Amino acid sequence: MTATPNGYVTVIWDAKAKAGREADLKAFITAAVTPSRNDPGNIDYEAHEVEGRPGSFVIYERWESRAHLEAHLAAPRMQELVPQMLELTEGSIEDGIRLLRPFRPAH
Q1: pTM of the full predicted structure?
Q2: Per-residue pLDDT tens over the stretch 11-70
């Protein structure tokens, strides 16, 4: 992931709960939102459940810079949360991460 030309970084994370762990993953994500919003450099951090697809979630994050995102990911609480998250989700965390780069019309 790299920062966009104007500095900020946007991340989308798609997560799918393991069968029978849908409510657990939703509670886990819910508990993680406020601390992440309070991390330095966070612009936006929103959790969404995909309508019509129980157990499918999307996290939308914006950070002031790549350094802020990396500090968030390296925070001790995040290092503790990752193994717990892996117990609740299908696949790897990295498989669900996408970086967005904004663009606008020239005029």
Answers
A1: 0.83
A2: 999 999 999 999 999 999 999 999 999 999 999 999 999 999 999 999 999 999 989 999
68 burial via Cβ count (<10 Å: 0-12, 13-18, 19+) = buried
* Domains of the chain, CATH where assigned: 18-97 (3.30.70.100)
